[in-house]
Amino acid sequence: MKYAYINNDRIVHEIIPAFADEFPGIPVTERYSKEFLAHCLELADTIDVQQGMEFLPLKNAFAYPLKYTGVANAESSAGESVTVEVSFSEPGTWEIANTPKVPVNKTENSITIDVVPEGESRIELLFTEQKFGRTMNQVVTIHGREQQSTEVNA
Questions:
Q1: pLDDT of residue 57
Q2: Is 10 a member of any domain?
Q3: Residues 20-79: pLDDT tens digits?
Q4: Would residue 74 count as lying in a domain?
Q5: Which of 55, 96, 103, 133 pairs as cysteine with 111 (C-beta 3.0–4.6 A)?
Q6: Which residues have CB under 8 Å from 147's CB, separation 6+?
Q7: Is 58 part of any domain?
Q8: What angle is formed at CA 48 by the lines to CA 122 and CA 121, rounded to 5 degrees?
């Protein structure tokens, strides 16, 4: 068992073993405060995570942070689209939380982009909107030129 210290920025700042050689027989819960441990995720030793990786809550996974090459028209008004240009340095799964926010009326959007070595990309967009006291979720998945849309009522 190990723990990943993740602050509000979702970046793994430290990997902490459940037991450390410096403190034989003393578990992590006795070595750190409750406030510190509140920012830690308990992980199995088999989970591949390294310092500097980003926690992706929608995927419950870790990946290296997305590196942007530029953002065009980032400040749009409601109803307008936002173009985000992204370049990937390596294959992986990336999540862009709350980007873009269009429209701005009680709608939260997140984008997850999977880039595979063969160059076939899959883009998944999750739109969550509050309507009439209910949460409406719509997932749009784009594989190459094919698009698939699924609507889920929560």
A1: 78
A2: yes
A3: 888 888 989 899 999 999 999 999 989 889 998 888 877 778 887 655 443 333 344 444
A4: yes
A5: 96
A6: 140, 141
A7: no
A8: 10
Does residue 14 share a domain with residue 72?
no
Q: Are 140 and 147 in contact (CB under 8 A)?
A: yes
Alpha-carbon separation of residue 89 from 84, 92, 108, 116 (angstroms) = 16, 9, 27, 12
Number of domains making up the chain: 2
Is 60 among the domain residues?
no
- Residue located via tokens 């160059």: 119
Domain that holds residue 24: 2-52
